[in-house]
């Protein structure tokens, strides 16, 4: 017996994975699906959970917030260097100035940060707002 909402969720995750085949290693997931008989979505979610747990156990929320504020913007900055559009360059240059200022402030005031509840969640939200394509707030 299958659950319709679960099937719908698995289908949506599979479509998302298919839209980013290189990043999500879609071909490998398809091979694993054939070998194990489990949906690609389950395999991806288990791998993502294990990776997130390892990263969290190594560096906690600080490492997760730093990675979320660094990885995608670094990738997009390299793409902006290759493009002819100066608006991209301005967006990412401004982003990195804010990122650097935030990092310096965070190191200098680390004793205060421990007193702010959910600081790292706010930091992730702030940086997502800065670099999300919908807002491009930097």
Automatic annotation (TrEMBL):
Domain of life: Eukaryota
GO cellular component: membrane
Membrane topology: Multi-pass membrane protein
Record key words, sorted: Membrane, Transmembrane, Transmembrane helix
Pfam families from the UniProt entry: TB2_DP1_HVA22
First-listed, main subcellular location of the protein, grouped into a coarse class: membrane
Location(s), subcellular: Membrane
Regions that span the bilayer: 41-59, 93-116
Signal peptide: none
Family under the similarity heading: Belongs to the DP1 family.
Listed name of the protein: Receptor expression-enhancing protein
Organism (species): Rhizochromulina marina
